[in-house]
Automatic annotation (TrEMBL):
<feature type="binding site">
    <location>
        <position position="327"/>
    </location>
    <ligand>
        <name>substrate</name>
    </ligand>
</feature>
<feature type="binding site">
    <location>
        <position position="121"/>
    </location>
    <ligand>
        <name>NAD(+)</name>
    </ligand>
</feature>
<feature type="domain" description="UDP-glucose/GDP-mannose dehydrogenase C-terminal">
    <location>
        <begin position="320"/>
        <end position="422"/>
    </location>
</feature>
<dbReference type="InterPro" id="IPR001732">
    <property type="entry name" value="UDP-Glc/GDP-Man_DH_N"/>
</dbReference>
<feature type="binding site">
    <location>
        <position position="334"/>
    </location>
    <ligand>
        <name>NAD(+)</name>
    </ligand>
</feature>
<protein>
    <recommendedName>
        <fullName>UDP-glucose 6-dehydrogenase</fullName>
        <ecNumber>1.1.1.22</ecNumber>
    </recommendedName>
</protein>
<feature type="binding site">
    <location>
        <position position="158"/>
    </location>
    <ligand>
        <name>NAD(+)</name>
    </ligand>
</feature>
<comment type="function">
    <text>Catalyzes the conversion of UDP-glucose into UDP-glucuronate, one of the precursors of teichuronic acid.</text>
</comment>
<dbReference type="InterPro" id="IPR028357">
    <property type="entry name" value="UDPglc_DH_bac"/>
</dbReference>
<dbReference type="InterPro" id="IPR036291">
    <property type="entry name" value="NAD(P)-bd_dom_sf"/>
</dbReference>
<dbReference type="GO" id="GO:0000271">
    <property type="term" value="P:polysaccharide biosynthetic process"/>
</dbReference>
<comment type="similarity">
    <text>Belongs to the UDP-glucose/GDP-mannose dehydrogenase family.</text>
</comment>
<feature type="binding site">
    <location>
        <position position="86"/>
    </location>
    <ligand>
        <name>NAD(+)</name>
    </ligand>
</feature>
<feature type="binding site">
    <location>
        <begin position="255"/>
        <end position="259"/>
    </location>
    <ligand>
        <name>substrate</name>
    </ligand>
</feature>
<comment type="pathway">
    <text>Nucleotide-sugar biosynthesis; UDP-alpha-D-glucuronate biosynthesis; UDP-alpha-D-glucuronate from UDP-alpha-D-glucose: step 1/1.</text>
</comment>
<keyword id="KW-0560">Oxidoreductase</keyword>
<dbReference type="Pfam" id="PF03721">
    <property type="entry name" value="UDPG_MGDP_dh_N"/>
</dbReference>
Amino acid sequence: MKVTIVGSGYVGLVTGACFSEVGINVVCVDIDSKKIDNLNKGIIPIYEPGLEEMLMRNMKKGRLSFTTNIAEAIKDSEVLFISVGTPPDEDGSADLKYVLAVARDCGKNMDDYLLVVTKSTVPVGTSEKVKNAIQEELNKRKVNIAFNVASNPEFLKEGAAIADFLKPDRIVIGLDSQRAEDLMKSLYKPFTLNGHPLIFMDIVSAEMTKYAANAMLATKISFINDIANLCEIVGADINLVRNGIGSDSRIGNKFIYPGIGYGGSCFPKDVQALIRTGSEYKYELRILKAVEDVNNDQKLVIFNKINKYFNGNLNDKTIAIWGLSFKPQTDDMREAPALKIVKKLLEAGAKVKVYDPVAMEEAKHHFGDSISYYDDQHETLIDADCLAILTEWPEFKFPNFKIVSKLLNSPAIFDGRNIYDKNEMREHGFDYFCIGVDTTKNLIASSSIN
Ligand code: UDX
């Protein structure tokens, strides 16, 4: 079976790499010829652990190739995945122009049966539009060629995408024909061994599953952040409360870590998109509106703490920041809390010195020369008035606190990811602030670390 993947971005490349890894012949397509040239030379446009090695290995084996020639790729394939971008248009809704252009290309170029699978995260009802676009092109050509559409949303976490693809919690596929089901079963067979389930459903339900999953996860995060803020006020410790509730298997201990709000390319966009779908159908998703509000406020919690510590006067203060990406193991800064926090610090007149293990180049696109960049985390501390942790990169978890304390002007740490133990911080002599814990209070039990 030959598979074409249109859109060589994050999802397309991971999908292409993993399908070819199990021996399937894959052609990855993109309209960006520079990107395709680079990929053919082994230059990968994104940072994702394990991806580069996997792409290179399969290119060498001859079962993975890159091209801009979509017409050729379509003619040769039985299954085609659409994984192009759906950037928000002016009113914030997903712009389907790239998705539908691929659908039209399919209709214009296919000579034989084709299963067209949408992997891009698209609003509920998009597969129907894809189907119509293909059929219109076939009608224009006055040909009668069989095809099917399917929806196969991805649940890949950045930084762990390869593992998520190879050993998925589940694979969700929406379709409306036996032929499509048989094809998808055989394509995904290598990934469903060892009990990873393939869940078939109708197309609209599959489209909805993607949004409902991300909205549920975003809800967990906003819920725990809301509770964290209350913990701090009443003198409870969210780390203990999290352990206390997470051990109830109905709640579970995953995705209830408090922090400075969710970011990334999915949760913010998908929560907004689902709220919009609700309003299109005159249904108000009240919980999700609150999830979004809590998240927007949460992104400023660390700024507010810093501002309060310096009595509302950040003018000429220097703030060292460790971590800029929206989470560890990625250079992605889309919707990262750091964007909002750095902006507020600069507006308040502070100087900002930053270090991130991989997101420095990305950060330069956002902040230019308005902040200073350092290759070493300790260098950010020289002449800084405090340290703020915005991403929980492993290398920040066990610093030499003696050096940190010596380099900082005032011994203040603002930990947006709760990576340190408050008692230990006190022993080191720091003024320590984190999320959901009143760190000025003496609690008997020790706050646990992530
Ligand atoms: C997410 C989904 O997990 C994935 O299934 C979907 O396909 C795409 O969106 P991703 O955006 O890569 O993946 O990141 P994820 O690891 O889910 O984290 C999202 C955000 O939530 C990050 O900003 C992270 O810091 C935050 N988060 C996560 C918390 O604040 N607390 C938690 O307990 C978990």
